[in-house]
């Protein structure tokens, strides 16, 4: 499960533009409401009312700038604008929480096509994803290692943290610029468990029960590959793959597996969920999947 959409298909067509000759609303017709015999007799003719001069008192001045705006009105408008700016982050977080929760329970996956205020789209390859709290979360690191280990969320937080600010690029086209991610470099976890000589790749398992990913060992040891605990300077939310996800900065976002629960050292790269469905295994932004996006590094 990841913040990506399924392999791109034909985009929905825009609704047809309205015919300029079509009336905007129902027309009206006129008809005589009474017969000539029932019409009242015409009133006696009278002198026409005087027409004021264009700029005489009581006549509107076409060059007038309108009534002056009071100080109270100006201050009210400025106050509303400031309140809107202050509330924007709160509203965005609320929108993300709602969309993430709905997408997590949406069997049609259509909610994954909806962008929110932060620019991300939520997509799940599983019908639902269980939640993990700080108390019950565990990350196992095993496979071809010398010292298999299990890390709690508190243990991961005690390790040295690396902060990266990079663009996020989805293979389907959307991009979120300057997104902060923070966590433990994957290379530090690999060094902690001791990689055996025969290991050539790293496999990632997710607690949604469906998603997986892989990197070569050289890719996994890059300084911009992080086991992420924070995103946009806040603890990683469930909707964004929390409490722990992978972040592979130079690759398309489907490589950054959400809801990370296991890391396993293997002899060979094993295709992940989307690679089994046609995406490239080496997913460098702008140099794979037939796309020419600007690199995210």
List keywords for this structure.
297 residues, alpha+beta, 5-stranded mixed beta sheet, 5-stranded antiparallel beta sheet, 4 helices, 10 strands, globular
Q: What is the element layout, followed by pairings?
A:
Blueprint: H1 71-104, E1 138-143, E2 149-152, H2 153-158, E3 162-169, E4 175-185, H3 186-193, E5 201-206, E6 212-216, H4 217-220, E7 225-231, E8 234-235, E9 245-248, E10 260-266
Parallel strand pairs: 1-10
Antiparallel strand pairs: 1-2, 3-4, 4-7, 5-6, 5-10, 7-8, 7-9
Major sheet details: 5 strands, mixed
* Tally of helical runs: 4
Question: Can you write the helix and strand succession as a string?
Answer: HEEHEEHEEHEEEE
Distance between the first and last residues' Cα: 24 Å
Characterise the protein shown here.
The protein is 18% helix and 20% strand. It has four helices and ten strands, in the order αββαββαββαββββ. The strands form two sheets. The protein has a five-stranded mixed sheet. Strands 3, 4, 7, 8 and 9 form a five-stranded antiparallel sheet that branches. A hairpin with a 5-residue loop joins strand 1 and strand 2. About 27% of the residues have low confidence.
Structure summary:
The protein is α+β, with helices and mostly antiparallel strands and 297 residues long.
């Amino acid at each position: 499960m990841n913040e990506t959409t399924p392999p791109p298909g034909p985009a929905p067509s825009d609704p047809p533009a309205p015919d300029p000759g079509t009336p905007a609303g129902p027309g009206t017709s006129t008809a005589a409401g009474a017969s000539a015999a029932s019409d009242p007799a015409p009133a006696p003719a009278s002198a026409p009312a005087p027409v004021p001069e264009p700029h005489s008192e009581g006549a509107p001045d076409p060059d007038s700038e309108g009534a002056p705006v009071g100080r109270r009105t100006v201050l009210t408008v400025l106050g509303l604008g400031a309140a809107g700016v202050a509330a924007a982050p709160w509203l965005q977080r609320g929108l993300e929480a709602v969309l993430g929760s709905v997408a997590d329970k949406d069997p049609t996956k259509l909610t994954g096509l909806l962008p929110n205020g932060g620019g991300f789209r939520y997509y799940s390859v599983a019908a639902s994803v269980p939640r993990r709290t700080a108390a019950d979360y565990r990350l196992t690191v095993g496979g071809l290692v010398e010292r298999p280990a299990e890390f709690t969320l508190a243990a991961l937080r005690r390790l040295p943290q690396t902060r990266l600010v990079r663009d996020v690029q989805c293979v389907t086209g959307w991009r979120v610029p300057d997104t902060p991610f923070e966590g433990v470099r994957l290379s530090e976890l690999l060094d902690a468990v001791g990689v055996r000589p025969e290991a050539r790749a790293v496999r990632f398992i997710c607690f949604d029960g469906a998603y997986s990913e892989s990197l070569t060992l050289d890719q996994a040891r890059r300084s911009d590959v992080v086991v992420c605990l924070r995103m946009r300077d806040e603890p990683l939310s469930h909707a964004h793959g929390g409490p722990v996800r992978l972040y592979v900065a130079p690759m398309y976002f489907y490589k950054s597996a959400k809801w990370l629960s296991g890391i396993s050292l293997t002899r060979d790269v094993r295709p992940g969920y989307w690679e089994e469905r046609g995406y490239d295994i080496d997913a460098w932004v702008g140099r794979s999947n037939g796309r020419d996006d600007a690199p995210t590094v």
